[in-house]
Inverse folding.
């Protein structure tokens, strides 16, 4: 629902003060591109494009600007891929593709980043770098990261943890106490 891929049958979804349930399909697509970043469990890069071109795609769909390429190259450097910038996506490793996908999810400086197992295909050192990048982006750009992971301890201190178990959601306000949200 937060990704605006489905509409609620009841209630509304407000993001940055905008009731998204009142938007038509074109407005939802535009809003999603500007306000939401997606990091999928599998990179979903377009194999015929270069790493740089894949990262730039969301920016080109929206309002591209003169800083787009510099921003993309800065993100590629931050995820350790500056030496892969001009390689075709089908010529890099799975871990490199995931890092490119993370850069792509951050290129528009979205308000909310939805990340499904963003470090699942990465080694522990690269995972630590990516987690720190996401945390610094969250602070620097006032972004919210919603991360689905089976590797909770890897993310260290975060503002809020919600655990889903047997179809129920629990807020982990304190490690010893679980409060039912549903």
């Amino acid at each position: 629902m937060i990704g605006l891929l489905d509409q609620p049958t009841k209630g509304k979804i407000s993001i940055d003060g905008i009731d998204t349930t009142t938007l038509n399909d074109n407005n939802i697509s535009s809003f999603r591109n500007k306000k939401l970043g997606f990091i999928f469990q599998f990179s979903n890069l377009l194999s015929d494009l270069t790493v740089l071109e894949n990262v730039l795609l969301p920016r080109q769909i929206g309002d591209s600007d003169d800083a787009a390429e510099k921003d993309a190259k800065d993100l590629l450097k931050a995820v350790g891929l500056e030496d892969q910038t001009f390689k075709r996506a089908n010529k890099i490793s799975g871990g490199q593709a995931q890092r490119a996908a993370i850069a792509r999810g951050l290129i528009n400086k979205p308000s909310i980043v939805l990340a499904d197992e963003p470090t699942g295909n990465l080694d522990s050192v690269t995972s630590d770098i990516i987690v720190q990048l996401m945390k610094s982006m969250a602070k620097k750009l006032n972004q919210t990261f919603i991360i689905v992971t089976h590797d909770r301890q890897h993310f260290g201190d975060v503002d809020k943890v919600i655990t889903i178990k047997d179809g129920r959601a629990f807020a982990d306000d304190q490690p010893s106490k679980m409060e039912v949200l549903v």
